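Practice problem. Given the sequence and the SMILES for zinc ion, write out the predicted structure.
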Amino acid sequence: MAGLPSKHVYEELKALHVTELHHANSVATSCLFLREKSLLSRGTVERSGLKQTPQKSDSQDRVYSIWYDVFMDTVDIHNRASRYNEYGPVTFVFDVDLIPKTNTGKIWVTKCNPMYWAGKSEGNRWFQNKHELSEEFIKGDFGQMLVFRHCGGELPFGRFLTRIVLDDPKLRNEDGVDLYSMAYGGLRAAMSESGLNIPIERRDCSLRCKCRKGYKDDENRTYQMFDPFL
Ligand SMILES: [Zn+2]
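Answer key:
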């Protein structure tokens, strides 16, 4: 079994000075999370009959039975890679103390992104123990993701969601509505439904960031990712 005691994962993150955890998603799915005050697995959302934005990884996630898992990154992928995050333009930022202060249970840690799992053994897919984690876990390696499996597909984030970073593609939809403003309004409305008031920051990209070009090159996908009512 590759589930690691959350205490071990937390200690390793602290040793590497990781202070924040990240989760990126579409605007519509993020609105759902804000209304529920929880991160939900893809499978949990589907089972409850709620709508979510399709992700490229969906069919592969089912194959590897991670459909009911909740994923988090230890790094902001958009910043790190200077491109948009495939999973969506909204990044939830959590205080790493979410791990010891909420009942997360064991945590699984991937060694690489499941898209590269074909032909790999369990031992090359998941960190197996604390020793491996302290030897091989690298801050900033975004293939190494934290997976919350035994939370019933639902991870309440309580007061540990500290801020939301929203991309600004500088694009308008067919009706001339600015996508950033539309997304911002949707997220605010979802928060007001559940009584949350989390700051939303406009993402500050480096000059070399390729996100805007990426968003422009695939406008239909971009509309889908930014639409709160999808
Ligand atoms: Zn960018």
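Check your answer against the key. The mean pLDDT is 91.
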